[in-house]
Structures are given as C-alpha cells and as structure tokens.
UniProtKB/TrEMBL annotation:
Organism: Methanolobus tindarius DSM 2278
InterPro entries linked to this entry: Methyltranfer_dom, SAM-dependent_MTases_sf, Trans_acon_MeTrfase_C
One GO BP: methylation
Keyword terms, alphabetized: Methyltransferase, Transferase
Keyword Transferase: yes
PANTHER family recorded: TRANS-ACONITATE 2-METHYLTRANSFERASE, TRANS-ACONITATE 2-METHYLTRANSFERASE-RELATED
Organism phylogeny: Archaea, Methanobacteriati, Methanobacteriota, Stenosarchaea group, Methanomicrobia
Protein name (Swiss-Prot/TrEMBL): Trans-aconitate methyltransferase
C-alpha cells in the first residue's frame, strides 16, 4: 500500500476541491497583473487557472508534498512557478497582491505561525482569500476514524497519534486573523454537504486525502487492515437509497486585508 500523498490519485478524486476552489477564485476580481501566492497548491490545477487570469502577473504555488508538486509541474505555464515549501516557513516579504488558498489550511496545526508568515509575504493593501475545512466538517468520516482508533483492534497503533486537522469556527478564526495584524476581516461558514455519485468516487475521496495521515502512521500490514475497516464502516453510514454517498462538508471562508 502506497503511503503519503499521491498527486496523480489526488487529481483523480479531487472534484469537490476543484469545485470549491474555482468558485472562490472566480470571486477574486483579478485585473491581470497581480502577483499571487497559492498556499497548498496540491496538483496545481487551480494554480494554472489563476495564472491564466493574470497574464501580466505571476503565480507561485507552494506545497509540502513532493508527489503533489510532481503532478503540479504537468500544469506549469510561463508565469507559474511551483515550490516545495511549508506554509509555516514561507520566507517571502512584501511580495504578493493576493494570497489564495483552497482546501489546504486545515492541514496546518499552528495557524498563528502560518498567518504571521502569510502577513509578511503580502504587500500593503493585499488581500488574503482562503477556504478550508471548518468546524463540523466531515462528521461521518471523523466519527468512523475516531471509533476505529479507539477500538481494541487499533488503539495501541494510535496511542501516540495526533489528530491531523485543525477545523476552527468563525469567531476563533476572526480572533487569530486580528491577532496577526489583518484588517477588514470577514469570516463565514458555508454548508457544502455533498452526495458523491457512486462508491468509487466516495471511496477514492476517503483514500485520498482522508486516510493519508492515518495510513502513513502504520506499518504496511496494519495500514491495509485499518483502511479496509474504515472504508467498510464509512460506506454503511454514507450510502443513500439512490446509490449516492453522503458526507457533511463545512467550508470556512476567509477574507482579510493587510493595510
């Protein structure tokens, strides 16, 4: 069983992420000359669309997964660059007009540190526009994962495991943004509940990216057992009478300005 992020597999099953990100991107009102930082660019599909919208500007997509960036390089264009980089260690200063992020920031645990680096990377009057998993996201899958990890069969495997996601509420994130120096702050939660059309798309989404941090924590034989257990139990909860598979999705939307 392959461990870690797989850029090719992610692209195959990333329809929800692409839909959410395209909507946010189309709301940016870009003029064509902006310098844009795409945080957690993943397979680079949205980065390439951003680059098309700024023919006289530039887009830099960053991700901490080399496999994701290998896939992203397939979408590279003249004004688009990809860098292997962690969001909590950006190293840019007064460089970007727009910081964009879609379906990525819930993977970051220390948002005070991340927001400090993001703020530093932005020019004055630049905007940050992000969307990521918020409080109440993926309740079905989260419940299955927590039950599995605490079960007699797997509890010893996960005794030292740390939950991989940070999914805040609106007020909590407003406070973090204000503490980091941002102004004109708007944070809101969006209901994006989804019925996956079939078992393949649902299980593909569970496998990638949902199970990645859990599978990566386990040895090969235990990883396969855990994966099969989670998928089996998740399908029982998610399947609907019409053959679709349901999951709760809550997207935390962020708009903030560096004055």
């Amino acid at each position: 069983m392959k461990k870690g992020f797989d850029g090719e597999k992610y692209e195959k099953f990333s329809a929800p992420q692409q839909e959410w990100g395209s909507k946010v991107m189309n709301e940016l009102g870009l003029k064509g000359g902006e310098h844009i930082l795409d945080l957690g660019c993943g397979n680079g599909l949205l980065s390439s669309k951003l680059a098309e919208k700024v023919p006289n500007g530039k887009v830099i997509g960053i991700d901490s997964s080399s496999s994701m960036l290998e896939q992203a390089e397939k979408h590279k264009t003249g004004n688009l660059e990809f860098l292997l980089c962690d969001i909590t260690d950006l190293g840019f200063e007064n460089e970007f007009d727009v910081v964009f992020s879609n379906a990525a920031l819930h993977w970051v645990k220390d948002h005070s540190l991340a927001l400090g680096h993001i703020y530093q990377s932005m020019k004055n009057s630049a905007i940050m526009r992000a969307q990521f998993a918020g409080e109440g996201n993926c309740l079905n899958l989260a419940s299955i994962l927590q039950d599995a990890m605490s079960s007699p069969e797997f509890k010893d495997d996960f005794s030292l495991f740390k939950w991989p996601w940070y999914m805040p509420g609106v007020e909590e994130y407003e406070h973090l943004l204000a503490e980091s120096g941002f102004e004109d702050i708007r944070v809101w939660m969006e209901n994006a509940d989804r019925n996956f059309p079939d078992e393949e798309s649902y299980v593909g989404w569970i496998d990638h990216p949902g199970l990645v941090p859990f599978i990566s924590h386990l040895p090969e034989d235990r990883a396969a057992l855990f994966r099969d257990h989670v998928v089996r139990e998740a399908k029982k909860i998610a399947v609907q009478e019409d053959g679709t598979y349901f999951e709760y999705f809550r997207r935390l939307n962020v708009y903030a300005v560096k004055k």
